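hey
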């Protein structure tokens, strides 16, 4: 008999002993466990033969533990509990019900698809810990390739060696303006409205990407935009907008966070795609459940958009 089969049988025999001792009857143990009484009797007899000592005294009214049986039970009860917990815990981890998903983010969690995904996943997977790291595309891709991160959510449709990518959602692009700006009264603005504006971006992510995005689109209008890099984070960058230092751009998800003196106005027809990137060798079950849910929500969102 294989070692794994032997272990399974021995564990089952230990359960027979525990229930028979509690019920003081092989018959009642059989009812409790849903097996034949002969199965209980034969299993306990095999175990007694294996260890070379009687665990029970059989009599017409049932069974009672021998002294050796009592000593055996004192050790067996906690051991069975630990083994059963280990089996359940390993099974849960294998099914992705417990564990950790390490996520690289390049977008805001304030609102939008990613916020909805995280909330839905956590609601169904209470015992999976979600760990987040902000950063740029290059560092996120490297972390995914070296298995320091399970998945990264990046703009565009990135390609990386040893990785797969799936486009999941799109976000509108917004101009960030001071509330007293001439364009603040518009419901939407276009690139031509921004051709003579001064822009500011953060030196941290996603400042470099916003810079490139601005240069690309305004260059198509024959303009070379002035873009100032500021050594501040996003919150302070918004404050600089209110002070008239310049305009900036942001994605739709970030508009869920309000800043005094700042207004967001969508750029006509501009949508930014976002993709998930992960290693083809990633076998983390919790991540696989996460990816499956992301794809499901993405399909539902696409259907909802098509229905509008």
């Amino acid at each position: 008999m294989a070692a794994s089969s032997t272990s399974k049988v021995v564990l089952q025999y230990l359960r027979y002993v525990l229930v028979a001792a509690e019920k003081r009857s092989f018959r009642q143990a059989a009812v409790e466990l849903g097996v034949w009484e002969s199965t209980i009797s034969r299993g306990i007899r095999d175990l007694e033969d294996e260890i070379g000592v009687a665990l029970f005294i059989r009599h017409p009214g049932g069974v009672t533990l021998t002294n050796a049986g009592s000593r055996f039970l004192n050790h067996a009860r906690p051991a069975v509990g630990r083994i059963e917990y280990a089996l359940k815990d390993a099974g849960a981890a294998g099914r992705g019900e417990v564990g950790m998903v390490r996520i690289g983010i390049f977008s805001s969690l304030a609102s939008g698809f990613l916020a909805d995904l995280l909330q839905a996943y956590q609601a169904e997977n209470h015992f999976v810990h979600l760990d987040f790291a902000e950063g740029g595309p290059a560092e996120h891709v490297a972390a995914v390739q070296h298995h320091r991160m399970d998945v990264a959510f990046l703009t565009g449709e990135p390609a990386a060696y040893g990785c797969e990518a799936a486009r999941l959602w799109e976000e509108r692009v917004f101009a960030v303006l001071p509330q007293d700006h001439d364009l603040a009264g518009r419901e939407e603005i276009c690139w031509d409205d921004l051709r003579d504006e001064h822009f500011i971006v953060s030196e941290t992510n996603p400042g470099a990407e916003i810079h490139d995005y601005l240069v690309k689109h305004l260059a198509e209008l024959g303009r070379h935009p002035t873009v100032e890099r500021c050594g501040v984070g996003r919150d302070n960058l918004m404050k600089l907008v209110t002070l008239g230092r310049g305009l900036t751009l942001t994605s739709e998800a970030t508009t869920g966070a309000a800043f005094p003196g700042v207004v967001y106005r969508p750029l006509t027809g501009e949508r930014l795609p976002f993709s998930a990137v992960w290693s083809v060798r990633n076998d983390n079950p919790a991540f696989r459940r996460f990816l499956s849910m992301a794809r499901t929500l993405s399909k539902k969102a696409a259907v909802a958009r098509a229905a509008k």
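The CA atoms of residues 201 and 207 lie 5 Å apart. Confidence is low (pLDDT under 50) at residues 1-8.
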